[in-house]
Design goal:
- The complex is a heterodimer.
- Chain A has strands at about 5, 10-15, 20-25, 30-40, 45-50, 55-60, 60-65, 70-75, 85-95, 100-105, 110-115.
- In chain A, strands 2, 4, 5, 9, 10 and 11 form a six-stranded mixed sheet that branches. Chain A has a five-stranded antiparallel sheet with strand order 1-3-8-7-6, with no helix packed on it.
- By secondary structure, chain A is mainly β.
- In chain A, a hairpin with a 4-residue loop joins β7 (about 60-65) and β8 (about 70-75).
- In chain B, the strands form two sheets. In chain B, strands 2, 4, 5, 6, 9, 10 and 11 form a seven-stranded mixed sheet that branches. Chain B has a four-stranded antiparallel sheet with strand order 1-3-8-7, with no helix packed on it.
- In chain B, β9 and β10 form a beta hairpin.
- The termini of chain B are far apart.
- In chain B, about 35% of the residues are buried.
- The chains are: A mainly beta, B mainly beta.
- The interface of A and B includes residues 41 and 98 of A.
């Protein structure tokens, strides 16, 4: 099955600086890579995703890069703000058969933005 | 609001109790999931239902029993749990067959005493 590793486990950045979270995956057949943000007391919410036919995707201050050869993908947050403080999870899809998929998640990164 | 609603938000139960967690999705999805979230660990997939049929059971102990009566509702029946089962239980839904985004509920914080 798919194995997703995520680093670092905690990240503290000064407001305005950038934050980078990296993930690796093991199943070369995976082709969908979402990133989720989980705030305290809430469930994870999708913030950006990328598919294997794309190397980079950007949405305002958030960008994701994918290197299929190396089997790693990264989340980049620029100009961080206090509301970016949360736990971030990467995930990779894994086919269960019959065109059904499930997500395997990394362990999460707790991001703290210092004012 | 994510469109996936879980009740109750918090639950404290004894090891001999029987309780149920409920999940409802209003997104028209055809797949629903139960995840267990423990501190400092990846989300653990417990059960997957696609078109109301269970397609995955990740070696979950029998004291957890899922039920999917229709594509909008998912239950997790709990019986004789252990303290180590205390965690946040998350429900999610998605559209199967398309390898697409999963939408999560806010979770049920379960404490077993």
């Amino acid at each position: 099955g798919e194995n997703v590793e995520q680093h670092p486990s905690t990240l503290s950045v000064q407001e305005g600086d950038s934050a980078v979270i990296k993930c690796t995956y093991s199943d070369s057949a995976s082709n969908y890579f979402p990133w989720y943000k989980q705030e305290l007391g809430k469930g994870p919410q999708l913030i950006i995703d990328i598919r294997s036919n794309v190397g980079e995707k950007k949405d305002q201050r958030i960008a994701v890069t994918l290197n299929k050869t190396a089997k790693h993908f990264s989340l980049h947050i620029t100009e961080t703000q206090p509301e970016d403080s949360a736990v971030y999870f990467c995930a990779a899809s894994e086919e269960m058969g019959s065109n059904d998929y499930k997500l395997s998640f990394g362990a999460g990164t707790t991001v703290t933005v210092r004012a | 609001e994510t469109g996936v609603t879980q009740t109750p938000r918090h639950l404290v139960m004894g090891m001999t109790n029987k309780k149920s967690l409920k999940c409802e999705q209003h997104l028209g999805h055809n797949a629903m999931y139960w995840y267990k979230q423990s501190a400092k660990k990846p989300l653990e997939l417990m059960f997957v239902y696609s078109l109301e049929e269970r397609v995955e059971n990740n070696s979950v102990p029998s004291r957890f029993s899922p039920e999917c009566p229709n594509s909008s509702h998912l239950f997790l029946h709990l019986h004789t749990l252990q303290p180590e089962d205390s965690a946040l239980y998350l429900c999610a839904s998605s559209q199967m067959g398309g390898n697409t985004e999963a939408f999560f509920g806010q979770g049920t914080r379960l404490t077993v005493v």
